């Protein structure tokens, strides 16, 4: 597995497996199968509600001797109401306990709302004690990331943001490169939106190499130096999505993919008032 070195010297796999929206009863098996297929980076979050099951899949893979804990790179995230100094401290401990782990390889502030500065202080403290090897943020626009780097002594190692052929984030990546904050792509397939998996341009590019659309997209992210998280519950697709290190997209292919950029989210804008309102209402409903 190809690796990337973060700004604090920690290395991580460039391709990973995400467990968002996997039904609870399937999560442990999916994580186990993903590790069996060769994935070493596993991405969950407290709001996904499946940290327990993710931990179970990891434990089974370790117990059966497929991997050691040190070979895995496990990520979790704190959500909006956990974004304060005290709550973050508690939530880190809770994530570790829930997953049955003594440390996490990466811990992120999931959304750019709440007392993110207080949460960051607790994350920095947990990093110093070795409970978190790397720390970062998610869904921060470039301007917010720059502010956050400017006003903290320890800068994020990662910003996990939406990146896919419809929302390529080229300028955002340049800003992140400037500040040495690694871009990690969520929803690399845009969850199939805008008919991604049957897109003629992507299919034609893949045909030249005997590769699928999914493989072209992930390979494109690898060649851009972006860490990518792909989700699937199907073992055959887990194998397909990881078989991307035996071909290289040409400059011409890359230009064709660049032309697909709509420069807008396939989901929502984190700064849109309606979206922030949706998050706030949901928070009050769930008290999560
Ligand atoms: N930080 C954040 O705010 C945030 C937000 C969203 C996601 N994430 C992370 O990023 C990970 C990935 O994003 P995502 O799960 O939203 O979306 P995604 O990976 O872009 O897309 C997943 C969808 O694609 C399908 N799929 C996967 N491989 C395929 C293939 N080779 N051929 C055809 N279909 C395929 C899956 O179906 P099947 O499962 O049926 O195969 C699923 O419906 C998440 O699991 C999560 O860890 C983070």
UniProtKB/TrEMBL annotation:
Residues 21-261 form the NADP-dependent oxidoreductase domain. It comes from the Bacteria. Pfam families: Aldo_ket_red. The keyword Lyase does not apply. Keywords: NADP, Oxidoreductase. PANTHER family: 2,5-DIKETO-D-GLUCONIC ACID REDUCTASE (PTHR43827), NADP-DEPENDENT OXIDOREDUCTASE DOMAIN-CONTAINING PROTEIN (PTHR43827:SF3). Belongs to the aldo/keto reductase family. This is Oxidoreductase. It comes from Enterococcus innesii.
């Amino acid at each position: 597995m190809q690796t990337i070195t973060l700004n604090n010297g920690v290395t991580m796999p460039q391709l990973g497996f995400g467990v968002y929206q996997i039904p609870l009863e399937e999560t442990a098996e999916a994580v186990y199968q993903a590790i069996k297929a060769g994935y070493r980076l596993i991405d969950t979050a407290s709001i996904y509600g499946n940290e327990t099951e993710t931990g179970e899949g990891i434990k089974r893979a370790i117990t059966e001797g497929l991997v050691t804990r040190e070979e895995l790179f496990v990520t979790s995230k704190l959500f909006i109401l956990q974004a304060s100094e005290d709550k973050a401290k508690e939530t880190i401990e809770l994530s570790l306990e829930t997953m049955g782990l003594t440390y996490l390889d990466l811990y992120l502030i999931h959304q750019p709302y709440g007392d993110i500065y207080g949460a960051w202080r607790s994350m920095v403290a947990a990093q110093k004690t070795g409970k978190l090897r790397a720390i970062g943020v998610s869904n921060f626009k470039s301007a917010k990331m720059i502010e956050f780097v400017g006003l903290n002594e320890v800068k994020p190692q990662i910003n996990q943001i939406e990146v896919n052929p419809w929302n390529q984030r080229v300028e955002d990546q340049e800003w992140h490169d400037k500040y040495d904050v690694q871009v990690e792509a969520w929803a690399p397939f845009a969850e199939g939106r805008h008919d991604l998996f049957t897109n003629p341009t992507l299919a034609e590019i893949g045909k030249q190499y005997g590769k699928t659309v999914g493989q072209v997209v992930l390979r494109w992210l690898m060649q851009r130096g972006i860490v990518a998280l792909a989700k699937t519950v199907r073992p055959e697709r887990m194998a397909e999505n990881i078989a991307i290190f035996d071909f290289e997209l040409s400059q011409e292919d890359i230009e064709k993919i660049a032309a697909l950029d709509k420069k807008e989210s396939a989901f929502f804008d984190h700064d849109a008032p309606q979206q922030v309102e949706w998050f706030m209402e949901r928070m009050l409903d769930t008290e999560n």
